[in-house]
């Protein structure tokens, strides 16, 4: 069944609508979906420019879809690389024969494979073999110096972003002012692992922390295994 269009039922006549549109040439910029739904004759003149406008909208949508696909592909590649490095780190930690060697492997991997500008490990366990290492310090879990980290230690969740200057000072010492952002892991019964960056945008609140958690779990399990073996 066909329905004939009768503009007599409309409050505005076609000429009035046309006159209004002439006075408001930017109307379709506000309602681009309307431009796509219009039925246009295939001839020359003004209708051709409107058809071009519709075509440009479709092209822009395609460009936007292309940008999104490119971003998704790049993120997938980054995640794949992180997954491989995290797996390699877990294997390296499991191969170590002592707690000191395990922490050395962790610090080396975070520096070389994960490109940390400064890596720091605060260990609850006293490991004299590491006293000379710049990235290591021993503090008992009840140390007053760790008071600012108690919430983090209690939650066990990774934290990313800019740390308070007092926390930076404890972790990075004389290099504290160089560090503009950090990824911080708290490991129950183990201590703290910090990866500092000179770039303030490298680590930020809200970024994904799944791989950080996996690295922390691998370190904790490796240390527990060595402690049980000892």
What's the layout of helices and strands?
Blueprint: H1 14-23, H2 27-30, H3 32-37, H4 46-94, H5 99-112, E1 118-123, E2 136-138, H6 150-155, E3 159-161, H7 165-172, E4 181-187, E5 191-197, H8 210-229
Parallel strand pairs: 1-2
Antiparallel strand pairs: 1-5, 3-4, 4-5
Q: Explain this structure to me?
A:
The protein is elongated, with a radius of gyration of 30 Å. It is of the alpha+beta class. It has helices spanning 14-23, 27-30, 32-37, 46-94, 99-112, 150-155, 165-172, 210-229; strands at residues 118-123, 136-138, 159-161, 181-187, 191-197. It has a five-stranded mixed β-sheet. The chain is built from eight helices and five strands. Strand 4 (181-187) and strand 5 form a beta hairpin. It has two domains: 13-95; 98-229, GAF domain (Beta-Lactamase, 2-Layer Sandwich).
Question: What characteristics describe this protein?
Answer:
2 domains; 51% helix; 5-stranded mixed beta sheet; alpha+beta; 8 helices; 230 residues; Beta-Lactamase
The neighbouring-strand order within the major sheet is 2-1-5-4-3
CATH topology of the largest domain: Beta-Lactamase
Ranges with pLDDT <50 over ≥5 residues? 1-5
Provide mean pLDDT, rounded.
84
Helical run tally? 8
Largest sheet: 5 strands, mixed
Total number of strands: 5
N- to C-terminal distance: 87 Å
| SSE run | HHHHHEEHEHEEH
Residue share in helices?
A: 40-55%
Can you name the CATH architecture of the largest domain? 2-Layer Sandwich
The coarse silhouette is elongated
Report the portion of residues in β strands.
5-15%
Q: CATH homologous superfamily of the largest domain - what is it?
A: GAF domain
- Indicate how many domains the architecture comprises: 2
By CATH reckoning, the class of the largest domain would read Alpha Beta
The radius of gyration is 30 Å
The secondary structure category is: alpha+beta
């Amino acid at each position: 069944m066909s329905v004939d269009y009768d503009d007599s039922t409309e409050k505005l006549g076609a000429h009035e609508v046309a006159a209004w549109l002439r006075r408001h040439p930017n109307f379709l910029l506000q309602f681009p979906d309307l431009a796509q739904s219009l039925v246009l004759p295939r001839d020359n003149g003004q209708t051709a420019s409107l058809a071009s406008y519709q075509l440009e909208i479709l092209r822009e949508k395609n460009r936007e879809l292309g940008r999104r696909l490119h971003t998704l592909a790049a993120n997938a590649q980054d995640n794949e690389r992180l997954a491989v490095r995290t797996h390699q780190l877990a294997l390296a930690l499991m191969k170590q024969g002592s707690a000191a060697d395990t922490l050395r492997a962790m610090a080396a991997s975070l520096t070389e494979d994960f490109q940390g500008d400064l890596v720091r490990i605060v260990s609850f366990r006293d490991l004299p073999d590491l006293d000379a290492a710049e990235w290591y310090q021993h503090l008992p879990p009840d140390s007053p110096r760790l008071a600012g980290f108690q919430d983090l230690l209690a939650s066990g969740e990774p934290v990313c972003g800019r740390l308070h200057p007092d926390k930076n000072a404890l972790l990075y010492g004389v290099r504290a002012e160089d560090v503009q952002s950090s990824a911080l892991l708290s490991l129950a019964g183990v201590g703290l692992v910090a990866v500092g960056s000179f770039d303030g945008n490298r680590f930020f609140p809200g970024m994904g922390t799944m791989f950080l958690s996996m690295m922390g779990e691998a370190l904790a399990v490796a240390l527990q295994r060595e402690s049980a073996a000892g």
